[in-house]
Design goal:
By secondary structure, the protein is α/β, with parallel strands linked by helices. Helices cover about 45% and strands about 15% of the residues. It is built from 10 helices and 9 strands. The strands form 3 sheets. Strands 1, 3, 4, 6 and 7 form a 5-stranded mixed β-sheet that branches. Strands 2-5 form a two-stranded parallel ribbon. A two-stranded parallel ribbon has the order 8-9. A hairpin with a 2-residue loop joins strand 6 and strand 7.
Amino acid sequence: MGSGGARGLAHIGAIEELEERGYEITSIAGCSMGSIIAGMYAAGQLEEAKEWFLRVDKQLILRMMDINLLSGNSLVKGERIMLELQKVVPDRPIESLEIPCAIVASDMRSTEEVIFRTGSLFEAIRASISIPLFFKPVQIGQRLLIDGGILNPLPLHVVDRREGDILVAMDISGKDSMPMDTTYESIDVEGKLEAIRARGWNVPKSLEQQVRSLGKRVDAIRQQRAADLGRNVSFVGLLDRMSDMQIQQNTLLSLRLTPPDVHAVMPQYAFTTFDFDKAEEIIEQGRLLMRKALDDYEKKCPIAE
């Protein structure tokens, strides 16, 4: 299960669809938001987690933002979020979970992938969700850990496999186009002239022609500016898109190196990273995407009755 902020709630719907179709999940792996859902499912408490996420609104999100004033390397400490999650699912050793679970983080010092299969579930999750510059990095021993999605946003190769099983990928960083607003509002010159006439004012023909000519020039300028894609991208937007591109390419690499049997894909711009108040909609989209992926798989590989 991949990284992608609030889009990761799609993993809940995907899991529900798999189980409703009669599939048994025998092991699971995730990074970033995928690590939260993976850990809670492996702990046997996905339903409790789902109910909690469905109650999340913008006010709760703001209350969980423990601003980090003492450090210049992050905006949020991340402690309040973990405390809230532990009210739903108490911390446990990963090795004690109902099914094998692997959680992926990235080590800033060594630039290596770190895979948690044992130890504190919530320590592993906290490391895996540490979005650079947003969440404070997690130090474990001599490792300084950040978001697992930096190196491997879809950790297919770390799943504990069994003979005869199928590998299912819920990819929430699918390639798509960056949304840009290229619209512009045309000046209603005739409407404005008509409004002036309605007031009983006389507008000379020569002035009307000048107003129409000016309106056309202004429209042309607005159209040209709207078509200039560079003007649509702010400094923050540019950095965000660079991160999106990196995640998309790393996801494609993961899919090539470890091809899944079932591959459900959500476009990266379907929802934003912080759309947690749209939980119900995102969960349902995950269900529908997994349903389509399973339909395609079962057409190619019919399941014996």
